[in-house]
Amino acid sequence: MDADALGVPDGQGTVVTGAVSASDVEMTSFDLGVAEEGVEVLEEYEARGGCVLAQSGYLDLLGRSWGCVIQGEGWVDICVVQEGRDGEGSTLSVIHMDSDDVARELEP
After folding, report:
1. Are 81 and 104 contacting, i.e. CB atoms less than 8 angstroms apart?
2. Is the residue at 16 inside a domain?
3. Domain count, the chain
4. Share of the chain above pLDDT 70, in %
């Protein structure tokens, strides 16, 4: 997968693949902006319960990318909200990893 496939403008990012195995990777587009979608993400996890916010914050200086790490018992979700290509809306990427993913990575 290349940076363009993830919506990263030319020359502005590098995609690292194969670093971590994940159970599930999900990408969804929304009409909301980055900040509004970030609030929605956090509210959904809060309503779901059984997890804590480990980290959150903007990933760039212009506020076009925001991310958080949510941790539950035996799992972690890494969420990244990026501004849409045309400056409208946003894209949410969620990478879900659980203890089985870690065990697979540690196998000889």
Report:
1. no
2. no
3. 1
4. 79
CATH number at residue 60: 3.30.310.80
CB neighbours of residue 34 within 10 Å: 24
Quick check: is 57 in a domain?
yes
Answer whether residue 83 shows pLDDT above 80. yes
CB under 8 Å to 10, separation ≥6 — which residues? Answer: 3, 4
Range of the domain at 91: 23-106
Distances (CA, A) of 97 to 17, 53, 55, 58, 64: 15, 15, 16, 22, 25
| Alpha-carbon span 32 to 73, nearest angstrom | 30
Instruction: With respect to residue 71, please indicate whether it lies within any of the assigned structural domains.
Output: yes
Question: Does residue 39 sit within a domain?
Answer: yes
pLDDT in tens, 22-68: 668 888 999 999 999 999 999 999 999 999 999 999 999 999 999 99
Examine the pLDDT at 82 and tell me if it is beyond 50.
yes
